[in-house]
Automatic annotation (TrEMBL):
Listed EC numbers: 3.2.1.4
GO biological process: cellulose catabolic process
Family the entry assigns: Belongs to the glycosyl hydrolase 9 (cellulase E) family.
Taxonomic source organism: Protea cynaroides
Reactions it catalyzes: Endohydrolysis of (1->4)-beta-D-glucosidic linkages in cellulose, lichenin and cereal beta-D-glucans
Protein name, per record: Endoglucanase
Presence of keyword Signal: yes
Residues forming the catalytic site: H419, D470, E479
Length: 499
């Protein structure tokens, strides 16, 4: 029987508490001896990864040369151009929910840390635009958002290059009769955040993004519901909305306020703070749950002394920081023996990079306002929070018990057999003949390293005991995703400028 290539996205020992506090405060012996990591190199590679995930017609300046054009007829069956965008992970589906979140976090990385990106800033901006160009296409029809292209079940039953795809490329949408406030709210956030990125670089494009963000948010807010209700058989169990759509409405409003400074969005946030559960799950942040991100984003204005009426968001953000600090017990946040943030479920690195990004962003806001975070009988300074974020980044780059970099192409040792179709199959250049759906199985099951190095890809990472199986079938550990890399871009930018 052919393998199914799909995926479904203890109390802490006192000894390890001491270990983690020490690790968060002091660099590892390897890092100290070797002068630390080359964050600039890692930054360049983390952005390059997105070019390996591109769908559609590739541009002349495409740097990942083993990739070719793919999915050029997406949307043709409905008479609507849906080419472009990103494949979210190691498969060939375009999932709108994680793609929008990826675009939001890439934009936030540039907004907060673009000044630290040096020559890589233009590549980061291009990565955002590849996402927003697609998001503009999927939102071109008022009251409609195309949220997925491709049938996940048929795609996950094959192991084939995106260039060879012969699986169903059905386009799935939400509309007024079948709402999806979660994916629409995130799409509005992505468009609004990106409009800030292009405000001075391309004002007409920025205005288009903001105008569309306003329209999509109105649709999300006026026609409420979770997209996994009407599209359950399509998006579940892959990107099923478990958390509800309320957080995406607040998230979208927060980004629209930041981008437009319109009072209506500030009033929306204040009016809906309790109704939309702003204080729920304070230490969750990712494509499905925006709560910690909402609190950190809005808290910047509070810390700068401009918005006391939003002080509850700062209290929530402080609580988030306290819940993540090593040594403070919280059932939702654990650490591996080697010091990695660990949350239950697959692809743990998505939590590591997203939460670490928030730690760094909030530490900067604290630093600029000369504030600290009160945690019971103690307090956390901006410097302490930054050290914890850096410790997570260093773990990813190789300062871990296995001594392996979880970023492909960075360091001397990195994953060789990642769960990624294009990387694991011979490139079109090396093997021009079509490789059919089941013909790829032998490459999937092969013990050999992937022939194409997907430089910059960060995989799902080790298990709770720091063990890592470098094997394609272990997709929860070996599959890279765009939403692992997006927040890491901001982290690497900052640490490249502050080594």
């Amino acid at each position: 029987m052919a393998p199914n290539f799909g995926r479904i996205p203890p109390s802490f020992p006192a000894f390890f508490l001491l270990l983690l506090v020490t690790a968060a405060t002091h660099p590892s012996p390897a890092a100290a001896a070797g002068g630390g990591h080359d964050y600039s190199d890692a930054l360049r590679k983390s952005i390059l990864f997105f070019e390996g995930q591109r769908s559609g017609k590739l541009p002349p300046d495409q740097r990942v040369k083993w990739r070719r054009d793919s999915a050029l007829r997406d949307g043709a069956s409905i008479g609507h151009d849906l080419t472009g965008g990103y494949y979210d992970a190691g498969d060939n589906i375009k999932f709108g929910f994680p793609m929008a979140f990826t675009t939001t976090l890439l934009s936030w990385s540039i907004i907060d840390f673009g000044k630290n990106m040096g020559s890589e800033l233009h590549n980061a901006v291009k990565a955002v635009k590849w996402g927003t160009d697609y998001l503009l296409k999927v939102t071109a029809v008022p009251g409609t958002v195309y949220v997925q292209v491709g049938d996940a079940l048929s795609d996950h039953n094959c192991w084939e290059r995106p260039e060879d795809m012969d699986t169903l490329r059905t386009a799935f949408k939400i509309d007024r009769a079948h709402p999806g406030s979660d994916v629409a709210g995130e799409t509005a956030a992505a468009l609004a955040a990106a409009s800030i990125v292009f405000q001075s670089r391309d004002p007409p494009y920025s205005r288009l993004l903001l105008h569309r963000a306003v329209e999509v948010f109105e649709f999300a807010n006026n026609y409420r519901g979770a997209y996994s209700t009407s599209l359950n058989h399509v998006v579940c169990p892959f990107y099923c909305d478990v958390n509800g759509y309320q957080d995406e409405l607040l998230w979208g409003a927060a980004w629209l306020h930041k981008a437009s400074r319109r009072r209506e969005y500030r009033e929306y946030i204040v009016r809906n703070e309790v109704v939309l559960h702003a204080g729920d799950t304070i230490n969750e942040f990712g494509w499905d749950n925006k709560h910690a991100g909402i609190n950190v984003l809005i808290s910047k204005e509070v810390l700068m002394g401009n918005a006391d009426y939003l002080k509850s968001f700062r209290q929530n953000a402080d609580a988030f920081i306290c819940s993540v600090l090593p040594g403070i017990s919280h059932p939702q946040i654990q650490y591996s023996p080697g010091g990695l943030i660990f949350k239950a479920g697959g692809s743990n690195m998505q939590h590591v990079t997203s939460l670490s990004f928030l730690l760094l962003a909030y530490s900067n806001y604290l630093s600029h306002s000369n504030k600290v975070v009160p945690c019971g009988g103690t307090s956390a300074s901006s410097a302490q929070i930054k050290r914890l974020a850096r410790r997570q980044v260093d773990y990813i780059l190789g300062d871990n018990p296995v001594r392996i970099s979880y970023m492909v192409g960075y360091g001397e040792r990195y994953p060789q057999r990642i769960h990624h179709r294009g990387s694991s199959l011979p490139s079109v250049g090396a093997h021009p003949a079509h490789i059919g759906c089941k013909e790829g199985s032998r490459y999937y099951l092969s013990p050999n390293p992937n022939p194409n190095v997907l430089v910059g890809a960060v995989v799902g990472g080790p298990n709770s005991t720091d063990d890592f199986p470098d094997s394609r079938p272990y997709f929860q550990e070996s599959e890279p995703t765009t939403y692992i890399n997006a927040p890491l871009v901001g982290l690497l930018a900052y640490f490249s400028a502050h080594p």
